[in-house]
Each structure stands twice: as structure tokens, then as C-alpha cells.
């Protein structure tokens, strides 16, 4: 599979550690992406209150050869975006334009995630999911709902899956996993101390580990056997300090679900049994 070109917007929205002056440059670009894409390095430095040397250093820190290659990538990213207002202009004063900006950002997240999913990692993950005796799915904080959705979907297909929003319970259960099981970790940042502890125990017991994340470089990436990376551009809409959107990682779960549905021997039977058990909850007394 050909490696996709580095995306400037993806790197600007990543969780890479930056100095304060570099953060000012990044924030200015995210607030004024179209204007910034046409600025010289000197103009960008002046507009963001940094030095031209810092602009050059930031470009290299983000994975580019220099400012020119960063600028070209940023222009490519902007050309792919649907027309809309700048992210900083989301306001009830312009509901239609704000909705278009949100739609454009979220649509681009899904499109880029689909493009960047590594096919060999996806195949390996699907094989492990389909063959595992027990699948434990663990997340903390904002990504717990993604883990719960994944466990529900995999159980629908007849795969024995478990998750818990209680950290202590998740940690305790991870101690019982064996080489025949699978540990799935979900973390936007890949920097959770709790997930690191659980991953260390799993590795010591020979349990295969799959990570669903929005970061290509993190401690959890290096501890996992297979990694599926989503593209998270939440910072175009809110702040560079957090990645709160669950949509890209939920999309990765959906991708796994539909591929598993096509692979497993009788998924319709398991879904039918599952829905029959749940049907009584959907009936209302006349």
C-alpha cells in the first residue's frame, strides 16, 4: 500500500509536544487556515508573534523538510475542504455557515481516516478479532462510549466481548487474559497511564494488543502489536489542547464491524438471536 502524503492539517491537529512560540503559530494557522496558507514564513511569524526561525523549526518538527513543503501540504488540505466559514466563526449569528463548517470538518475526518487506515494492520486486526476466545476492550475518559459501542457490536456478531467503564474492574479482568484472547485499547492520545499499565500486564502474559488511536506516535503505539489510526481534526473547531471528538474512532469500529460481518460464518443468526433477546425492551404496553 502506498504511504499517503503527510497532511499539514493532521499534523497541526496532532498531540505532538510543542514549545509556546510554536503553539502560537499552530493556533494562528488553525484560526486562519486560508490566510496562513498564502503567507511567507516571515509574514506568518509576524502574525503569530514568533520568529521566522521558529516557523522553520515547527515545519520540521511536524515532519516536513521545511516551510515550503509544509505550505504546499497545507494548500492541498485546504483545496480538499468543502467551502465554509473559518472555524473561529462558528456562531449562532451564522447558523447555516457554522453547520457547514462542522459538516466539512467531520466529513474530512471520515474521508481521511478511510484513506489512511493501513490495510495490512486492518487485516491482522480482523483476524485476531475473529479468532479470539475473549475480546476485552478498554478505554478511559472520553473514549469509554466508543469501547461500549464496540463491545455491543462485536457481541451482536457472536464474538465474546467485554468492556467496563470502571477502571478497577477493567484492570482486574485484564489479569485473566491469555494468549488465546485479545486486548483492544482505545485512546485518542495514546498516553493513558491506566491503559499503559493494562498493556504491560497483557504483554507479559503474551496477550496480543490492538490499539485504536488518533496519534501515530505515542507510548501505547509502541506497546501494541497492531495499530489502527483515525484522523481527528477536532482542534479545527475547538482548541488544540484536547481531542474530544469520538466520531473518527467510532467510524473505525464501524469499519471493523462491517468487515467482520462479511467474514464470519453466520452473522445473521447471531444478530437475530441478539435482537430477539432485546425485543422485549422495545415493546410498549397498549
Please name the CATH topology of the largest domain: Rossmann fold
CATH architecture of the largest domain: 3-Layer(aba) Sandwich
Helix content: 40-55%
Beta-strand percent range: 5-15%
Q: Taking Cα atoms only, what radius of gyration do you get, to the nearest Å? A: 21 Å
Mean pLDDT: 87
In sequence order, what are the helices and strands, one letter per element?
HHHHHHHHEHEHEHEHEHH
**What's the CATH first level of the largest domain?**
Alpha Beta
**Count of individual helical segments:** 14
**How many angstroms separate the termini?**
57 Å
User: What about the largest sheet?
Assistant: 5 strands, parallel
Low-confidence stretches: 82-88
The outline comes out as globular
What is the fourth-level CATH superfamily of the largest domain?
Glucose-6-phosphate isomerase like protein, domain 1
Helix/strand structural class: alpha/beta
Based on DSSP secondary structure assignment, what is the total number of beta strands? 5
How many domains? The number is 2
Question: What topology does this entry show?
Answer:
Layout: H1 8-12, H2 20-31, H3 33-37, H4 41-48, H5 52-61, H6 67-80, H7 95-116, H8 119-131, E1 135-139, H9 144-156, E2 161-162, H10 167-174, E3 182-187, H11 193-204, E4 209-213, H12 219-223, E5 226-229, H13 247-263, H14 267-279
Parallel strand pairs: 1-2, 1-3, 3-4, 4-5
Pfam family, one: SIS
GO molecular function: carbohydrate derivative binding; DNA binding; DNA-binding transcription factor activity
Keywords: DNA-binding, Transcription, Transcription regulation
